[in-house]
Amino acid sequence: MPILSNDYKPPFLFKYRHINTIYSSLFRKTKPVFFKRKRIETLDDDFLDIDFIENSSKKIVILCHGLEGSSDSKYIQATAKLLSLNGYSVAAMNYRFCSGEINRQLVTYHSGKTDDLHAVINYVLPNYESIYLVGFSLGGNLVLKYNGDSLFSLSSKIKANVAISVPVDLKGSSIALRRSENTLYSWRFLRTLSKKMHLKHHQFPKNLDIRQLKKVKTLTDFDDYFTSKINGFEDAEDYYLKASSKQFIPNISKPTLLINALDDPFLSESCFPVREANESSNFYLMTPLHGGHVGFISKGDFYWSEYQILNFLDRN
């Protein structure tokens, strides 16, 4: 599908991408969401904690958070609230080691770990007639990859997908994140990821060389020494190559919307799949001039991007 036009016009201060990004992450106030947590056992004897809003609807949206996020992330909470108010049940994923409890196995979540998403889909399949997938940043990459990589047979119950602020080219995004203007974001990610590796080392002292943390200066370093090795990739380059969703977009068969702001500080030029959108009959791309990374701030309880999610799902 051609590039879709958009009407996003942020308040004046939020035309600056870092303000849009940081405010939505740190200072946004959201209304309380009352989830019911259920634990799903995985095939490798691990678990996933999923937070549900169940309202007797036969339509459910699975929400996939970003790097080091959870169902507590403000964008997840707000999206869940808006969707539940408009007739959807919600299942908000917490990836492995993101629900507040360390997972059992050495493997962690990562940008391409679609088997865990598949497990959640299979869990909700018997109880719903329509399933929708919505992902943010890393979670958006999961959603796009799941729909296009052909590793799993897609249920006919999956009706549509939306992905927000997605690094569809992981290598390009990793290079963008090394820019000096992104130092704060990288530092915050590395701080929590490093803490998790220390806990993983105590859990698996013979399988995890924690001394490598001294060499980690960037997220690429972390992926090189830890994400890739823990999850069966050769190195960061191999991980980025195999997990990036951009290569799978041409295979997407369900109506799918990607919204990536042109001023997103996390994204490289390669993260705007214009050619793929123009050549696809199912993949829609929207590229607002402003929005930052998972920002899209607007007046009211809900943000512009959250209304775009609702509108797209309602049409499909």
How would you portray this structure in words?
The chain is α/β, with parallel strands linked by helices and 316 residues long. It has a single domain, classed as Alpha/Beta hydrolase fold, catalytic domain (Rossmann fold, 3-Layer(aba) Sandwich). 35% of the residues lie in helices and 16% in strands. It is built from 10 helices and 9 strands. It has helices at 17-27, 74-85, 114-124, 138-148, 170-176, 183-203, 219-230, 236-243, 274-279, 304-315, and strands spanning 3-4, 36-41, 47-53, 59-64, 89-94, 130-136, 158-164, 256-259, 283-286. The chain has a 9-stranded mixed beta sheet, with helices on both faces. α9 (274-279) links the parallel β8 and β9 (283-286). α2 packs across α10 and α7 crosses α8 (236-243). The longest helix has 21 residues, at 183-203. It is globular and about 50 Å long. The two termini are 15 Å apart. The mean pLDDT is 97.
